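User: hey, got a sec? need GtrA/DPMS transmembrane domain-containing protein folded
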Amino acid sequence: MIGAACGFLVNYHIQFHWTFKVSGPHSRFFMRYLIVSGTMFGLNAVIFWLATTPELFALLKNLAYPKLIPQPKNIAYWYVQVIATGIVFLCNFLVNRYYTFRPIKEREFNNARV
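Assistant: Yep! Here you go:
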């Protein structure tokens, strides 16, 4: 848990200062970031839950796999991990870009400081 919390804080700092280069009150951006991160965690869990439904799990288990490499017993989970990572990565970036770290208009910024 400590590692996850440290990673969360470092990731927030990097996105605030480097990825999106925003300025303004941390209280606004951090609360949004916290909500978005929790939502993306939930989205990841839902994708994994949906993928374990018997029909979809059987489909993933029977996807083509290179014959030269021994197939792991749990190949369906590997496929789900790749799919979930791609979806959550894209959603996370877009939501952070257009909601969490959306630049503050001058009027909003002055109202937030009061």
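Quick note: The chain is about 75% helix and 0% strand. Let me know if you need anything else on GtrA/DPMS transmembrane domain-containing protein.
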